[in-house]
Every structure is written in structure tokens, then in C-alpha cells.
Amino acid sequence: MIPIEKRFLRPSVMGVVNVTPDSFSDGGVHFDPDIAAAAARRMVAAGAAIVDVGGESTRPGSAGVSTDEELRRVVPVLERLAGEVPVSIDTSKAAVARRGLELGAELVNDVTALRADPELAGVVADSSSYLCLMHMLGTPRTMQEDPRYDDVAAEVAAFLEERLSFAVAQGVPEERICLDPGIGFGKTVEHNLELVRRLDVLLALGRPVLVGFSRKSTLRRLGATDLTSASVAAAVAAYGHGATILRVHDVAAHVDALTVAKAFA
Ligand code: HH2
After folding, report:
1. What span, in angstroms and rounded, lies between the C-alpha atoms of 124 and 126?
2. pLDDT at 96
């Protein structure tokens, strides 16, 4: 088994393909499986190390979809990509992860960090999959209603440390796990900025860190009007603070920027 830090060298780009009608930035764009699969192939050709396929929007206020609906959305895309494109499955549901892994996904990206479905940890443990554990305060429906922390970096790190121990106790080897502060998931603009500035607090847990700042509303709130440029700047900043995997929508722009940023490292 290749440890996650060997499979995803720093920096690596994860391209986002949301097979949803309602995702906050690309909702509807990839709802047709042929279009979604073509977008995934383009992302890998542009230098993405992996493509994150998701069938449930987690945007603020969203309510979630049924297992059947999520499978109906993602399975046709995964079938088209199987054996051809490296895939991550963005899901909190064991049944969706299981099907995704059968169809060749190599990473399970769970925004609930194994809290939503008690069977998901076992599905990951019984496979050879990588796992991303993300921090979220509350649920997508409520998370942006006045999020508060005394010390956001310390509290997110404590949460991820506990979730990492849980995953390992459930049989997922630590070398297969990465951690994610969950930009925008129950955080204000200042919380999101501080999490990146103080990424060392998360890195102290000894696992690679994934950051997803791409097209998130904090960028607009900072005054940005071009979300691609703004996302690239945030990704380069996160990389500079130690992030390994950058989850992005505009793959080519990020790959170029990170290639150059790396040359200065
Ligand atoms: N952000 C989103 C979804 N999944 N997974 C990880 N690990 N980290 C993130 O920051 C993250 C994530 C939300 O972004 P997007 O997929 O563009 O939108 P939506 O949830 O509306 O589909």
C-alpha cells in the first residue's frame, strides 16, 4: 500500500466534478454523465492528480439527497471513468462509497469525517482506499448561522485528532488518511483565513492536509470579482502554509500556479 503522502506529492490538485443540479459554484454544469466524464478527463489531462466526484451538494442551507438519488447521479459518471481516471468519491454514505470503490475510486472524501453513516468506516477499512476527514461545525443546513470558536485552529485540530483516532480504531491505517479544515463549513471569513494562516496547528497531527478554498464565498467577501484568480491565490497561500492537496474547480490555472509556487519553495 502506497502511503497517501507518496501517492499525492505536495502540491497535488484534486479536480471537482459535482454531479448535482444545485452545487454553489458548478451546480447543473456536470449533471449529464457524459459531460461530467468529459470534464473529469480534461481535468486529469490538465494535471489533476485525482478527480472528486460528488452527487450531493453541501452548500450552506442544503438539505441532502437520498442514497438512491446520489447513486443515480454518480454511478453513470464513475462507470464512464472506471480504470481510466483516478477518482475520489465525495460522499458521507456507506452505500455510495461502496459502489464507488467497486467502480475503482481510490479515495473516500467524507465531509462529515465518519459521523453521518456508522457503516462508512468499515467500508473504507475493508478496502484499500484513502480517506479524507473534514471538519464541519453543525450541518450544511445550519452551519453558517453565527459560527463561533474560542480558538478556531486549536478546536478544528482537536476535532480532527479525535476523528483520526476513531478512523484508525475502526481499522483504517493512518498512512491512508488526510485531514481537511473544511473551509466554509461553519466558519466566518476570519475563521477561514486563520485556519490557513495557522495550518501548522493541523500539520502537527502528522497527516497531509487537504484545503478546498476554490470558489467559496469568502473570496467574494474579501472583495474578489474573478473567482478563478481568487481561488488560485488562496490555493497558493494554503500550499505555502503546508497544504498537500488542493481541491479546485479550475484545474489548469491551479496546476500552473502551483508548479511555479513550488519552484520558489
Ligand atoms: N468543499 C465542498 C465539498 N466537498 N470536500 C473536502 N474535503 N473539502 C472541501 O473544502 C469541500 C469538500 C463544497 O464545495 P463544492 O463541491 O464546490 O460545492 P457543493 O458542496 O455545493 O457541491
Report:
1. 5
2. 98
Distance from chain centroid for Cα 198? 19
Residue ranges for the chain with pLDDT beneath 50: none
Mutation pick for ligand 1 pocket among 14, 22, 134, 202 (CB with most ligand atoms within 8 Å): 134
User: What b/e string do you get for 29-46 counting C-beta neighbours within 10 Å, with b at 16 or more?
Assistant: bbbebeebbebbeebbeb
The single residue listed with the C-alpha cell 475510486 is 105
- The model's pLDDT over 159-184, given as tens digits with 9 standing for 90+, comes to 999 999 999 999 999 999 999 999 99
Pocket of ligand 1, beta carbon within 6 A: 16, 18, 20, 23-25, 54, 57-59, 90, 109, 111, 132, 134, 180, 182-183, 210, 212, 247
What is the predicted pLDDT for the residue at 47?
98
Q: What is the pLDDT, as a whole number, of residue 210?
A: 99
Give, for 108, the enclosing helix (H) or strand (E): strand 107-110
With H, G, I as helix, E, B as strand and everything else as coil, classify residue 123. Answer: helix
Q: Rounded distance, CA 62 to CA 72, Å?
A: 19
**pLDDT score of 95:** 98
C-alpha cell at 216: 467559496
Note the pLDDT of residue 146: 86
Question: How remote is the C-alpha of 34 from its chain's centroid?
Answer: 22
Whole-angstrom Cα distance, residue 211 to residue 243?
A: 7
Strand partners, 119: none
Q: What span, in angstroms and rounded, lies between the C-alpha atoms of 139 and 238? A: 24
